[in-house]
Specification:
The complex is a heterodimer of chains A (351) and B (81).
Chain A (H helix, E strand, L loop, with lengths): L2 H4 L2 H4 L6 H9 L1 E5 L5 H11 L3 E5 L24 H12 L4 E5 L8 H5 L4 E4 L4 H14 L2 E8 L2 E7 L12 H4 L11 H4 L3 H20 L8 E6 L5 E5 L19 E2 L1 H7 L5 E5 L3 H6 L5 E2 L17 E5 L4 H13 L5 E4 L2 H7 L1
Parallel strand pairs in A: 1-2, 1-4, 2-3, 4-5, 9-13, 10-11, 10-12, 12-13
Antiparallel strand pairs in A: 5-6, 6-7, 7-8
Chain B lengths: L1 E7 L2 H6 L3 E6 L5 H11 L1 H5 L4 E4 L2 E2 L12 E4 L6
Parallel strand pairs in B: 1-5
Antiparallel strand pairs in B: 1-2, 3-4, 3-5
Classes of the chains: A alpha/beta (351), B alpha+beta (81).
């Protein structure tokens, strides 16, 4: 056996596998969007299994609260770019493959061109807007999307937009959820998440990619797997064979106005801003940088607490909830001047 | 009237205050009837805008008729990663 194939000998020994199948893996190009709780394990297993090209998209930095589930990173990586750290560690794990660190945020402007060079896409993102963007871009470019999502003890997995034998496409995210109000959904920081579930669902995403590339097994298309980590009860919901949705264009990414942690720290003493912490009451009580506390999910009801006299800075732990908050305010009260603290308190604490 | 048992997933568990609830509707109610009855009772469910209803582990359309023997699940999106 050729030396470079030696590390794959135990998978090539599988029924349905062979040197030819391993060559398919080595020629495959997989784009992983989001290098967090799902992206880390998915990337580790795909790198180990010899997927020839991995693209890693993430513009976020490592923060300490990520470490319990984002298993590629260590405390020494805090404040560093996830895409760069992950690429370096995965390259050590498998020097035979090619890894592209894409330190950027997916948007309606770059999604289609980014995806063009890849055979299949993994949705390992943590927000609804990017999930829709990936879904729609995959629909428009005819690529299959391996979807994963987690919340508390519940994990979801599916393959969207796979090709049926007659050329039609299997259901996608919008068949299930045409139009979600993201501000109404708690995220991992609000509701918590069991770290092992991220590992399980991330591994399952890698498993779907291996099946897709190797042409073995049965893809989880037209179906949604729901796994309860507390009981280990899983169910597969049948969604149908063909999508009923027609997508004609990408929703334009809304770019919210932000302020950097450095600038805010410099200008905070001038008292020119009105600060609003959109995290939970418990998080606010533990640590805050001042201002009032209106949790994101209560923002709509408490909008009257905000006034248009001064610029309002919304902050949370990572910048994610405050971005949602800015979008909500821009929609409901466009007269208010609002900015989101970029990178949230994670960035603030790195200063 | 008939009493239907509804299983909750994700954020629906918080909205309903438990893993399962019961709701009384007409016999041969549709998914659409169920949806509006639940949204009347739980306004937060309506605010989600999109959530899936599955009957016996299969996606259910608005016009599907449900029976009290069915296993009916409310499945909102989850967004963590």
């Amino acid at each position: 056996m050729q030396d470079e194939l030696l590390r794959y000998s135990c998978q090539m020994a599988l029924p349905d596998f062979s040197i030819a199948v391993q060559q398919k893996l080595l020629q495959a190009k997989v784009l992983i969007v989001g290098m967090g709780g799902l992206g880390c394990p998915a990337a580790q297993y795909l790198a180990a299994a010899g997927i020839g090209t991995l693209g890693l998209v993430d513009d976020d930095i490592v923060s300490i609260s990520n470490l319990h589930r984002q298993v590629l990173y260590t405390p020494a990586d805090a404040g560093q770019k996830k895409a760069l750290i992950a690429a370096r560690k995965l390259q050590q794990q498998n020097p035979q493959i090619s890894i592209a660190a894409l330190d950027l945020r997916l948007s309606s402007e770059n999604a289609v061109s980014l995806m063009a060079a890849y055979d299949i896409i993994i949705d390992a993102t943590d927000n609804i807007e990017t999930k829709y963007l990936l879904n729609d871009a995959c629909y428009l470019t005819g690529k299959s999307l391996v979807y994963g999502a987690i919340y508390q003890y519940e994990g979801h997995l599916a393959v969207w937009n796979a090709t049926n034998t007659d050329g039609s496409r299997t259901p996608n995210y919008r068949d299930l959820f045409p139009n979600i109000d993201a501000a109404q959904l708690p995220n991992c920081a609000d509701g918590g998440v069991i770290p092992t579930l991220a590992g399980i669902i991330g591994c399952m995403q890698a498993n779907e990619v291996i099946k897709f590339v190797s042409g073995t097994g049965e893809l989880l298309s037209g179906r949604l797997l729901i796994l309860d980590a507390q009981t280990l009860q899983s169910r597969i919901i049948k969604l149908g064979i063909v999508t009923k949705i027609e997508i004609t264009e990408l929703t334009q990414t809304t770019h919210t106005s932000t302020i950097s942690a450095t600038q805010l720290k410099k200008e905070l003493e001038q008292n020119i801003y009105h600060l609003v912490d959109v995290r939970t009451v418990a998080e606010h009580t533990t640590f805050n940088i001042g201002g009032i506390n209106i949790p994101l999910q209560e923002l709509e009801a408490q909008l009257t607490k905000l006034n248009s006299d001064t610029t309002i800075i919304l902050y949370c732990s990572s910048g994610k909830r405050s971005t949602e908050a800015v979008k909500l305010i821009q929609k409901l009260a466009p007269e208010l001047s609002v900015l989101s603290l970029e990178g949230g308190l994670n960035a603030w604490q790195q200063l | 009237m008939a009493v239907y048992k509804i299983l909750a997933f994700g954020i629906a568990k918080d909205i309903f205050g438990g893993r399962a609830i019961e709701i009384a509707l007409d016999e041969r109610a549709t998914i659409e009837n169920l949806r509006s009855a639940l949204e009347d009772k739980y306004s937060k469910l309506k605010q989600l805008s999109s959530y899936m209803i599955a009957v016996n582990d299969e996606y259910a359309d608005a016009a599907n008729i449900i029976s009290t023997h069915d296993e009916i699940a409310i499945i909102p999106p989850v967004s963590g990663g």
